[in-house]
Amino acid sequence: MKKRGKSNTKFIQILYQPFKDISWPYTSAKEINKIIDSLKDKNSSGYDEITTKIIKISKPLIISPLINITKKMLAQGI
Length: 78
Description:
By secondary structure, the chain is an all-alpha fold. 58% of the residues lie in helices and 0% in strands. The protein has 4 helices and no strands. It is elongated.
């Protein structure tokens, strides 16, 4: 039986070249504000035990760190 792993990989690499000049429009405070404002007011929480009410109340304090985290995520791809 013939192994095809290498030929398939090479085929994919030839056909699908990665984008070299891709630029990410980083997020802004306006966009983060819009997302937080669109959250429904709920008292229930997830695993982190943070409710949407807490997020909305603390928005002025967390907006800058959220923007920073989002920009780094997009720039680094993680």
